[in-house]
Amino acid sequence: MDNNQATAAFDALSQDTRLRVFRLLVEYGQEGAPAGVLSETLGIPQNTLSFHLSHMNHAGLVQSRREGRSIIYTANFEFFTDLIRYMVKDCCRMEFASIREDTQRGCSVIEMPTCCPPKRKEKP
Amino acid sequence: MDNNQATAAFDALSQDTRLRVFRLLVEYGQEGAPAGVLSETLGIPQNTLSFHLSHMNHAGLVQSRREGRSIIYTANFEFFTDLIRYMVKDCCRMEFASIREDTQRGCSVIEMPTCCPPKRKEKP
DNA sequence: CCTATATATCCATTATTCTAGAAATATGGA
DNA sequence: TCCATATTTCTAGAATAATGGATATATAGG
């Protein structure tokens, strides 16, 4: 994940309609949902939604496949978690969010202190 | 963190200049840096940068304080990690990113499988 | 081949965002 | 008080994004 991919990803999530679409797709999981269902569920004209879906698809946030007459959209979870990794690694500090790879368990582990963040050093 | 705060946060990170500003502020940590230093470091006119800083400040991503004639900007790490929490909790699925609070150690722990995500159920 | 359905593309309009020059505001020091 | 410095606010033009009606494309079924 480089800076350009990241800005594109943030852009894809930076608009109310698109965030709603993504969150809805998350509910549908890997099965995904056809464009028409999303359009109907969210009450957004199909061509407007198509515009946003193509925007999100281009950014990498969603994927699509044809099934008969329908185009099924799915959230790209791998991309989304890569974005989270990028945020921790490249947009934060160890004191506030650290990441390590647990190869045993095959997962990334992020830790974020919940309270008492390190205080700024006081002037003497 | 609600959806509106989230879209505002994503919006604040969705533009090249602003992402660069944020990442630069991350380097300066809690001390922060004056607007002029950011402007000079990034080679962006000070009024243009001021526009972006105010945008980011309004979204909650950065904070500012006056010190003499300078306005010192700092990354809002608490807000940023809240955004990450929101992404895991409200924009993802357990299979791909899970979060739990480790009260003993006073931190949130996020786990994200790195490989072999659960396959979509096959049609029989 | 014809029709209905599902979705994308084209297009024009409107709305929003970005940019930077010019002016205004706030502070510190002589 | 006057001046220099640091930054914001005002302003307008340019660029980009969002919206939805009309049309085009792809597919399934008769």
Written account of the structure:
The structure is a homodimer of 124-residue chains. In chain A, helix 1 runs antiparallel to helix 4 (46-59) and helix 3 (35-42) packs across helix 4 (46-59). The first copy, chain A, has helices spanning 3-13, 16-28, 35-42, 46-59, 77-90; strands at 33-34, 62-67, 70-75, 98-102, 107-113. In chain A, a hairpin with a 2-residue loop joins strand 2 and strand 3. Chain A is an alpha+beta fold and 124 residues long. Chain A has a domain at 3-78: Orthogonal Bundle (Arc Repressor Mutant, subunit A), CATH 1.10.10.10. The first copy, chain A, is elongated and about 50 Å long. The interface between A and B is large, with 53 and 53 residues. The structure holds a DNA duplex (30 and 30 nucleotides).
Mean of residue pLDDT values of chain A: 93
Q: From the 3D coordinates, which CATH architecture of the domain at 3-78 in chain A would you assign?
A: Orthogonal Bundle
Q: Biggest chain pair contact, residues each?
A: A-B, 53 and 53 residues
Q: Count the helices of chain A. How many?
A: 5
| Uncertain parts of chain A | 120-124
Separation of the first and last Cα atoms of chain A: 42 Å
The main β sheet of chain A shows up as: 3 strands, antiparallel
Structure classification of chain A: alpha+beta
Q: What does the overall shape of chain A look like? A: elongated
Taken as a percent bin, the fraction of beta residues of chain A is 15-25%
Helix-strand topology string of chain A: HHEHHEEHEE
CATH class of the domain at 3-78 in chain A: Mainly Alpha
- Give the full name of the CATH homologous superfamily of the domain at 3-78 in chain A: Winged helix-like DNA-binding domain superfamily/Winged helix DNA-binding domain
Which value, in Å, is the CA radius of gyration of chain A?
18 Å
CATH topology of the domain at 3-78 in chain A: Arc Repressor Mutant, subunit A
Overall strand count of chain A:
5
Oligomer state equals homodimer
Sheet with the most strands: spatial strand order of chain A: 1-3-2
